């Protein structure tokens, strides 16, 4: 069973606009959520995270929102840049050990 | 560069052969994880170490797989009698055991192709 779901395999946006990537989870025991970015032939790179006691975390152009009642989180990238084009993975953790990943969303930012 | 490193980056082997991969974590991190990623999927947890102790193994880790972390530093992942289904990217990650930050930092991965 897929405990972390990214239902959009791909997303295309124009440079300068907002990119919104979505993630849903089913396990209410998850207490920490992370977003990773991955380029081909490289390992995932950590982007931003959020604890379940918060509903928002910002880091520069990246903001993650958490809606615990809906078991939903989203990553906003504003403004989007062509260099943001990559696969984005949502991941969740329980009690600080293994990560459970979604299948990823391919973001393409067009110049 | 003080990031996670993995060696080799690519490995092509014939079915039935044994392979071994190495991971060097970020030096101050005491937790080390192995994940496997296949096409179209996110990374899947295989096993993890806290210092030299292997604390959990996934059901994905069959008896042909073994991992070690002697002295709590680098780690090795060995696959015996490789099968075509073992073809995947093998990722290593490390983290610091704190109560407030769960971030794991990944290496570049080892791409295994079993022919």
Description:
The complex is a heterodimer of chains A (111) and B (115). By secondary structure, chain A is mainly beta. Chain A has no helices and eleven strands. In chain A, the strands form two sheets. In chain A, strands 2, 4, 5, 9, 10 and 11 form a six-stranded mixed beta sheet that branches. In chain A, β4 and β5 (45-51) form a beta hairpin. Chain B is an all-beta fold. In chain B, strands 2, 4, 5, 6, 9, 10 and 11 form a seven-stranded mixed beta sheet that branches. Chain B has a four-stranded antiparallel beta sheet with strand order 1-3-8-7, with no helix packed on it.
Task: Describe the structure using short key phrases.
heterodimer, A: 111 residues, mainly beta, six-stranded mixed β-sheet, five-stranded antiparallel β-sheet, globular, B: 115 residues, four-stranded antiparallel β-sheet, 0% helix
Quick recap of the structure?
Chain A has 111 residues and is mainly β. In chain A, 0% of the residues lie in helices and 55% in strands. The model of chain A has no long low-confidence stretch (mean pLDDT 95).
Mind sketching the topology for me?
The complex is a heterodimer of chains A (111) and B (115).
Chain A: E1 4-5, E2 10-14, E3 19-25, E4 32-38, E5 45-51, E6 56-59, E7 62-67, E8 72-77, E9 86-93, E10 99-101, E11 105-110
Parallel strand pairs in A: 2-11
Antiparallel strand pairs in A: 1-3, 3-8, 4-5, 4-9, 6-7, 7-8, 9-10, 9-11
Chain B: E1 5-7, E2 10-13, E3 19-24, E4 31-37, E5 44-50, E6 53-57, E7 65-68, E8 75-79, E9 88-95, E10 105-106, E11 110-114
Parallel strand pairs in B: 2-11
Antiparallel strand pairs in B: 1-3, 3-8, 4-5, 4-9, 5-6, 7-8, 9-10, 9-11
